Amino acid sequence: MRASDAERERIAELLREAVAEGRLDMDEFDQRLETAYKARTHGELEPLVQDLPAPGSVVAPVGSSAPAPLRGSAANWPARIGGNATSKGAFALWGGFNRKGRWTVGRMFTAFAMWGGGEIDLREANFEDRETVIRCITIMGGIHVTAPPELNVDVRGVGIMGGFGEGSNEEGEPAPDAPYVRITGFALMGGVGVDRKRTKAERRRLKEAKEAEREARHRRGLEGPDGGAAGGGRKEL
């Protein structure tokens, strides 16, 4: 079967996801992407992604209309739910706390900061349960929560002579199979902020993938659709 432009783009998207997750290095990504854009048939496209299963999800066949997997951590959600909590709370008085990196959030997590501050980073965290409640209480202090764009987050806290709300949001949509996290509590003469953004490493991988894709498109344009030089002179009669 002949491959369409939409099918070539779908394979290119799967390759971009793979390099963002660290499954492919940039050289492999560059080679496969160039091959994908030059492919004429399904038989040429399918081998490019046969060894790239997304954890917890099924890679759509080339001819399917199903969307490509979401970026970065979104493909890993089923593997990140379950297990014993490594932390169920945090406390700061005239000081600070942080929970970040690889850790498992308890299904009920309580954070308290008085005349101090704390950081809760969920971007690389695992979750004890699919539904998590994070209670943030601050008195003349501050708590900052960072979540990936694909996580389902519901902010319901109250600010009293302070602030309790959402801050910056990077591009991305919550994934249907991601955990649901409700952030509640109150801030008295202090603040609780919730930002949605990716890690620096993931942003760097996505940037490198886009640059490699632009380079492959540029080479494809110079070579022309048949592999020859584009824009060549006319043959003399």
Automatic annotation (TrEMBL):
Signal peptide coordinates: none
Biased composition (Basic residues): 197-207
Organism whose genome encodes this protein: Streptomyces anulatus (Streptomyces chrysomallus)
Pfam families in the record: DUF1707 (PF08044)
Spans annotated as Disordered: 197-237
Domain DUF1707: 1-53
Record protein name field: DUF1707 domain-containing protein
Coiled coil feature spans: none
Amino acid composition bias (Gly residues), ranges on this chain: 224-237
Domain of life, per lineage: Bacteria
